[in-house]
C-alpha cells in the first residue's frame, strides 16, 4: 500500500514540474496527435497511426501514393503512409468513404469496350468488396462479386 501511495505522489509531482502544461495523459497525447496529422482509428481504444487521406484515380495513379503490384493482375495498393477516402475513374466517383471506411486496395481491368473495378474496403477488422462494371457508352453499375473472375478474364483477353 505504501508503494502505491509513493507512486501516486511521484506521478502527481511530475505533472506539477512544468506549470502551465497539461499533464501527460492518454487524452492529451491523443489530442496533440490529432492536431498534427490526419488519423486512422483502428478500433476503439487502440493506438492512432497518422496517415494522409488521398483519392485513388484508377486511370491516373500517382506513384507517390500508390503501387501497382502487377499490371497483369491489376492490383493497386495505397502506400503505408496514406489512406484512400475516395475512388474515382476519371470524372466518375466509384466509391466514397462514410463512417470511417477506407479503400485498402483495388483491382482494375480495362479494354476498349469495358472497364472493371473491384474495390476492397475495410473499417477496423471488418471488410467487404464492391465490384463495378462500365460497358462502352453506358454508366457504371454494381455487379455481383461472383461474376468478377469471369469478367476480368474476358476483359484481359479483349486487349
TrEMBL record:
Entry protein name: Signal peptide containing protein
Residues spanning the signal sequence: 1-16
Organism: Theileria equi strain WA
Keywords: Signal
Domain of life (superkingdom): Eukaryota
Amino acid at each position: 500500500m505504501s508503494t502505491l501511495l509513493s507512486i501516486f505522489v511521484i506521478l502527481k509531482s511530475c505533472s506539477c514540474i512544468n506549470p502551465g502544461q497539461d499533464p501527460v495523459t492518454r487524452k492529451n497525447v491523443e489530442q496533440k496527435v490529432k492536431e498534427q496529422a490526419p488519423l486512422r482509428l483502428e478500433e476503439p481504444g487502440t493506438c492512432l497511426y497518422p496517415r494522409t487521406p488521398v483519392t485513388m484515380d484508377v486511370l491516373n495513379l500517382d506513384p507517390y501514393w500508390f503501387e501497382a503490384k502487377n499490371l497483369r493482375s491489376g492490383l493497386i495498393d495505397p502506400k503505408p503512409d496514406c489512406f484512400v477516402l475516395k475512388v474515382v475513374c476519371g470524372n466518375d466517383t466509384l466509391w466514397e468513404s462514410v463512417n470511417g471506411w477506407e479503400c485498402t486496395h483495388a483491382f482494375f481491368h480495362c479494354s476498349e469496350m469495358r472497364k472493371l473495378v473491384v474495390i476492397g474496403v475495410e473499417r477496423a477488422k471488418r471488410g467487404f468488396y464492391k465490384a463495378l462494371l462500365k460497358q462502352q457508352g453506358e454508366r457504371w453499375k454494381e455487379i455481383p462479386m461472383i461474376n468478377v473472375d469471369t469478367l476480368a478474364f474476358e476483359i484481359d483477353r479483349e486487349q
